[in-house]
Amino acid sequence: MSASRPTLFARLDALGIVHETVSHRPIFTVDEGRDIKAAMPGGHTKNLFLKDRKGQIFLITALDETRIKLNRLHHHIGSARLSFGPEELLLETLGVRPGSVTALALLNETEGRVRFILDAALMQWPVVYSHPLLNDATTGMAPQDLVRFAESTGHPPQMIDFTALLDDEESTD
After folding, report:
1. Cα separation of 50 and 57, whole Å?
2. Of 152, 150, 131, 148, residue with least CA distance to 140
3. Residue 89 and residue 97: Cα distance in Å, rounded?
4. Which domains does the chain have, with CATH numbers?
5. Residue pLDDT, tens place only, 114-167
6. Region class of 99: left (phi > 0), else alpha (psi between -120 and 50), else beta
């Protein structure tokens, strides 16, 4: 069963995490929300729900402008080749639908099936923004608090510097 937004906020409060949420129209892609993001300075996230051929499941939370080369990422995270996970698996593991994928949905994943990958670039911002389980609002918090939240759900993030992966790609091509 998926957690509700009040349950999520109660968890953040219990952890002593300062958070602020702004309601807005539903947004489904990074580009759709540009006007909303312009009014909220900070690091905005994009999220990818992936699986590999061996059945490993991954949630990648990255800075919205970060380039992620899926065809090379598996080498750096110790997985088989990656593809987008099906909607049924997303709903089963994180309890959200496409367009609402968020690191905050880790609250719903209690079986330890999902590996959490976090873009190191997010740690440079004073505030990072994520959807609070649905894409009709955005919640901001300090990046170290996002890490603390993920750890509290049993999903310590694996930090990846995606920029370095691009630099590595250019040197090997």
Report:
1. 6
2. 131
3. 10
4. 5-25+35-172 (3.90.960.10)
5. 999 999 999 999 999 999 999 999 999 999 999 999 999 999 999 999 988 776
6. left
